[in-house]
Specification:
The protein has 285 residues and is α+β, with helices and mostly antiparallel strands. Helices cover 24% and strands 17% of the residues. Helix 2 (33-46) packs across helix 6 (105-114). Bound molecules: 2-oxoglutaric acid.
Length: 285
């Protein structure tokens, strides 16, 4: 009689069964391990880390020039999107200019430590906070995964400053160390610790999905543009449904790291298969 239980539950849940398509997780250009150690120490302590001047001023200018004409609306649909905030979704179908941010080796180096292999891109959006915008309601990004806190993060986010982020123009605000909280809401005393993420254009803040934060109020006379990529654990549902919003033609133009994060990968042993096979087969000509 054949075996009627799996031999080893750990092995069953951790070993990918794919043969033709070995996992590409962690195969990006490697960031310095010492630098990733330093960033992770800050993230574990505070829930976030600011990394200054990561991308060139040329790329910053290229992104800004590409994105600004693409915004269709001057207002979001609620106070969370922001009544004076412009947002761009389904990003890759519109522009690939931000791809070097999405799979930046320093960011993936940290995400490789935060999540299991083959974590996913949950969403990518551009956010342009216009003058007069109020502060966004504070929230932890992964609150919609209703698993009791305190717990490890199920999501993580980057916010790339395309304009300088200042206290006046709507720099993201965070409550340091709130990633360690249980399911409680911020108190008045916590709000006194609200910290603006002030950073020059070309910098990025990386934070855990459990950290309380929000877009800042824009009290300046100019808009504040950022690009925000959110990632999630490989078994979580992504916010944007990339299988539906992106054509295969578009996905083929992305790096294999972005393809993996768009769902052309599996979570061991076989989550994410297509017709019983590895989803990367769909990108074959
Ligand atoms: O624009 C920002 O600074 C943060 C936006 C944000 O947290 C969100 O929209 O979820």
């Amino acid at each position: 009689m054949g075996r009627i239980v799996v031999e080893d539950i750990e092995e069953y849940s951790q070993v990918e069964l794919a043969k033709k398509y070995p996992s590409t997780a962690g195969s990006q250009q490697q960031a310095s391990a010492a630098e990733v150690d330093r960033l992770m120490a800050a993230i574990e302590r505070d829930g976030y880390v600011i990394i200054e001047n990561v991308i060139s001023t040329e790329l910053v200018a290229e992104i800004k020039e590409d994105l600004i004409p693409r915004f269709e609306y001057d207002s979001g649909r609620n106070n969370f999107e922001g009544f004076k905030t412009q947002r761009l979704y389904a990003f890759f179908e519109k522009s690939l200019v931000c791809n070097p941010l999405v799979d930046h080796p320093l960011i993936l180096g940290c995400l490789d430590r935060i999540f299991e292999p083959n974590y996913l891109l949950s969403q990518l959006q551009a956010i342009n906070i216009l003058p007069g915008e109020a502060q966004q309601p504070l929230h932890p990004d992964d609150a919609f995964y209703r698993v009791q806190r305190p717990r490890p993060p199920l999501g993580a986010a980057t916010i790339w400053a395309i304009d300088d982020f200042t206290e006046e123009n709507g720099a993201t605000v965070v409550i340091p160390r709130s990633h360690l909280w249980d399911d409680r809401m911020p108190s008045e005393a916590d709000l006194e610790h609200l910290t603006p993420v002030v950073m020059p254009a070309g910098s990025v803040v990386l934070f855990l999905g459990t950290l309380w934060h929000g877009g800042g109020a824009n009290r300046s006379h100019a808009a504040r543009l950022c690009v925000s990529a959110q990632y999630c654990a490989p078994w979580c549902r992504t916010q944007e449904n990339y299988s539906l919003s992106l054509s295969r033609q578009t996905v083929k133009q992305c790096s294999e790291h972005i393809q993996r994060m768009l769902g052309y990968s599996i979570h061991a042993p076989f989550m994410g298969f297509v017709d019983g096979k590895h989803p990367r087969r769909l990108l074959e000509d």
